[in-house]
Amino acid sequence: MLDFPLWKRISLWGVALLVILAALPSIASLSGVRWPSGLPDREVNLGLDIAGGSHILLEAQPSQVAAQRLETLEESVRSTLRDAEPRIRIGDISTANGRLSFMLDDASQVDAAREELLPLINGSGLIREWDLAVNDGNRFILTPTAQGLEEAVSNAMDSATEVVRRRIDALGTREPTIIRQGDNRIVVQVPGLEDPAALKELLGQTANLEFKLVDTNALPSDIEQGIAPPGSEILEGAPGSDYEGRRIAVRRLGGIRGDTLTGAQGTVDPQTNENVVTIQFDPTGGARFAKLTSENVNRPFAIILDDEVLSAPNINEPIIGGSARISGGFTAESANQLAIQLRSGALPVDLSVVEERTVGPDLGADSIKRGMVAMGIGSLLVVVLMIATYGRFGVYATAALVINVLMILGIMALMSTTLTLPGIAGFVLTIGAAVDANVLINERIREERKRGRRVFNAVETGYREATRAIYDANATNFIAGVLLFAFGSGPVRGFAVVLIIGLFTSVFTAVTFTRMWVAGWLRSKPSEIHI
């Protein structure tokens, strides 16, 4: 227990010093000292409650998910029955009352149609997504199941949360908190962002990019009245584009969605000096885009973003390179913002801001000051008590305590974790746990001395027996910390992170380091020990 050869002492000090060096940029930042630009500068990120920032609560409407599922099902039904052998012909499809219904032209194909539709009804999951009924001999009615809709909403919110996270990360902000709240809400907290206007604009758009053929058979008078031909829909021109204030009829089905994009970049067209967004498709999307443009040469197609037409160019020749340019009266900033949205993916549902607040840095600074004062006073009292009670052993415990705090900061900086006010509470708790470990060790050594053991035996036994209790106590705290991290969110997870890191560092410093120091002192002056 008290054997520390030179290689072991060098290893322990090496680990401690490397982690402490990682804490120096954070200490400099918190102290207001400028850190040299040429040195590594990874710091502990400050949470919203410390650094200030923006808090936004986003909400989605489950009814939109249901409508999207119906539209997707309609297109799938049409293509599935059209590609069947022999082809199964159907009449007009209705999506009224939240369900899909249609009639077969040939009633003798009911069984064949049912067989073709089974994969669509059952889906790819473990639950049934649609209920199928056949009325009047040849009318099919597909009704969404409650379990299928619930799973679709949950999947849409999970996807929306990930898209929001990618968009915010693309802005270069640090350590945002993005979590789901309830069934259809997302909480977004961005430390250091005092003006949430750009953030709201970025998150408020779904960035649902589509390419649809223009219905050239639609009458201008009907379009102005909002009357769409069968199979088509009327869309408004996007503000700021050449089509602002105009209406365009586009084919509702048979287009291409932007979910196959692999890249998007805001650029400038060298011929017109116009700000445009260049997009790239993956092989599947590129093939579909090439097929669409090859089959519809000399026909216009609309480029649609969030149900608004950006432009409707004519297809002069097939576009087979897997890339395209989007124009629509962009500024350099709006083109770059759209590129971020397209790169991060389309939101599966519209998100509306239902709550917004900005937290100023003054509140966090005041909280830090009060927390530091409390920590400083508490630590000073602990140091005085330890030294007064245990003498040199108390000095060792105090030195281990300082190293412990620096190591926690260093590990948090290396892991790019966020420090919140509950995290500061975790610091205080860790200090208490480290001191408690030294108290257990020192009191155990005293007991062994009272029993008449020699100095070396008393210290060795004291560390060995107390360490068991320390490991048991820290194991239970570790389990609690893991559970808090797994099931908690936001500040609760911040507290758990500091707690878990502190458990490891406190054992490392309070047990291993103090034992190394005590062993070195005992070997140099064994007759001077008093505890």
Automatic annotation (TrEMBL):
Residues 350-512 form the Protein export membrane protein SecD/SecF C-terminal domain. InterPro entries: Acrflvin-R (IPR001036), SecD (IPR005791), SecD/SecF_arch_bac (IPR022813), SecD/SecF_CS (IPR022646), SecD_1st (IPR048631), SecD_SecF_C (IPR048634), SecD_SecF_C_bact (IPR055344), SecDF_P1_head (IPR054384). Residues 157-215 form the Protein translocase subunit SecDF P1 domain. Pfam families: Sec_GG, SecD_1st, SecD_SecF_C, SecDF_P1_head. It comes from the Bacteria. Keywords: Cell membrane, Membrane, Protein transport, Translocation, Transmembrane, Transmembrane helix, Transport. It is found in: Cell membrane. The chain crosses the membrane at residues 371-388, 395-415, 421-441, 469-488, 494-518. It is a multi-pass membrane protein. Residues 242-349 form the SecDF P1 head subdomain domain. Forms a complex with SecF. Part of the essential Sec protein translocation apparatus which comprises SecA, SecYEG and auxiliary proteins SecDF-YajC and YidC. Belongs to the SecD/SecF family. SecD subfamily. This is Protein translocase subunit SecD. It comes from Aurantiacibacter flavus. The gene is secD.
